[in-house]
Amino acid sequence: MELGKRISKVLERHPIIKDFFLFCLVTILFHRLYWHTNMNTWLFGPYTEEVFSFFTLIAFKGTEFLSNIFFTSPFDAIDSSIKFYTINALQEKEYYCIMQVVADCSGIKQIFQVFMLMLVLPSKFWKRMIYFLFSIFVVLFFNIIRIVSLTSVLLNHPQSYELVHDWIGRPFHYVIILGIWIIWLQFFARPKKR
Description:
single chain, mainly alpha, 7 helices
């Protein structure tokens, strides 16, 4: 009983601890739902494939646009793939590096996660939904940055691609989502004291 009171007092004095616990809890719950249920289908119903195709196209077009700016190697953008090539002695294209943007690269899972966080965070519902709409653009932008960075790794250091994809690229999403959450709590969640 005494321990419960102590914890309650600490949480009252330091709401950031409670908020961080909530962030972790929602993140874990979200992942359990996402990986162990058919979450995409019950959210989008018969339009699931169209929704994923739409967000995958955004990721692909953004990757193509930035690849034109940052990469000097010639490439073709075909069927949601960036295909780097060289011209051989017969004046034919030889593809040597292919980055395919698939549905798992769409950023939609991260958008879901931000949405679930916004449902449980403090403040008025309409404010949270406006912030969520802006957050979608942030998630999509940084997802494209992530894909272009991974493309650079695949192009220049292909032996490191899996390592970078799994241990830097994936956690990168959580850093962005944590940043979105921190900005919300810091600037928008609670009324400012005068």
